[in-house]
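Hi R.,

Here's the chain you asked about this morning:
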Amino acid sequence: MSIAQKYTQIKSQLPNNVILVAVSKTKPVSDLMEAYEAGQRIFGENKIQEMTEKWEQMPKDIQWHMIGHVQTNKVKYMSEYVSLIHGVDSLKLLQEINKQAKKNHRVIDVLLQMYISEEETKFGLDEKELNEVIKHVQQEKESFENIKIIGLMGMATFTEDQNQIKKEFLLLKSVFDKLNTLSFSLNTLSMGMSGDYIPAIECGSTMVRIGSSIFGNRK
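And here is the predicted structure, written out as tokens:
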């Protein structure tokens, strides 16, 4: 199957309220353009330099999502154009995104990343840290006028155990719901990738990040 066919097939399986981020890291612009011609307008990259090169070459109606771990010193390279930053896991990073967004006269949407898996290699905040960050942003509103926290993101453990995956996704969904009952209006819950997007959607995901199922395996 071609990239366009795989994209169309996945898109047809997703409920209307679930946003598809096509994860295009390491893939050439020609592959991205095949998905673009088929209708995709949101692409996710995990390296800022690669994302910037693609942004420069590709149509300007594309939304670029930074889905990888972000170093504060690299934020300036994407602040002119990035639509959504998925993996925000510290107050320091939020402050830097706000600073760079301000320089570009923009408001940048962000997701706070929560640590839900049992793998040491994953990044994210625990629930206590998450609440502290949100509280700080609410109390210091005037210092964060150029960012907007629109939701949460989390990655489940890489495992065949469907019960564990669902347990982790449901934990994130419960935190998301809890924050919304505290009148914090979040609308995006980013969880689920090629291997686990179906249970993620069943657990309440509104945004999935799918790469290999569209573009094929990475080298």
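One quick note: The first strand starts at residue 19 and ends at 23.

Cheers,
M.
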